[in-house]
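Q: I'm a student working through a structural biology exercise. My instructor gave each of us a protein and asked us to get a predicted structure, then write a short paragraph describing it. Mine is Fibrinogen C-terminal domain-containing protein. I'm not confident about reading structure output yet, so if you can add a plain explanation after the tokens, that would really help. Here is the sequence I was given:
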Amino acid sequence: MLNIFFLQDTTALLTGIQEYRRDYNQRQTLHENLLRKSFAYDHEWTTIFSRNHHGVNNASWSLYRRGYSDNGYYFIGLEALYLKTTYESAQELMIILKDWDGKTRYAKYEHFQIGDEDEQYAIRKLGAYVGNAGDALRPHLFKKFSTFDRDNDGNDKLHCASMYGGGWWFFGNCTTSMLTGPYHYEENAHSYGISWSTWKGWNYSMKSVEMLIRPTL
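A: Happy to help. First, here is the predicted structure for Fibrinogen C-terminal domain-containing protein. I'll explain a few features afterward.
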């Protein structure tokens, strides 16, 4: 009898776990669909950067300036981004991150603007944050863009772009977020790469990321 009760309890437990996992997956799928419908796939949003695969890595200043598209890696270009955020209407920024467990988080900023090449494409404006990924971009406000062949991080002892393997708006201690680093697959996800420290910490590289802008509503 004890064995029968044990088997019944075990079966009930396993059934409960399966139902929980199914419900969790359904909720996660619903959350992602709502997020995409609300933000990423709204026709007014323009993708300025996306990563979901290997592509150009540690690009030069000139390549970041003009933009590129290669094997799951797209960037509109710093000059185009400067023109859109300066001479078109005020722009808001959305960053959508996806980890290797299929979870999605976002960070949204009410106003985003970068300077011109004379200003080294520094982030001029970064408005109020809303989201569930954490405000990992805030420390990069007013920081200049750096690449392996143009060091603007303000630290004579470090070369952040070379160390982290990509161009970004680095500062003296380098970064609290970086979306342009080397792409790592799941087995090597705990490495510097596509990082957003306020969600997954320093040593975690995302499966995919997308940055979008649209005119402020």
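A: Here are two points you could use in your paragraph. Helices lie at 2-40, 61-66, 78-87, 160-164, 197-200. DSSP finds five helices and eleven strands in the chain. It's a good idea to check both against the output above yourself.
Q: Great, thank you!
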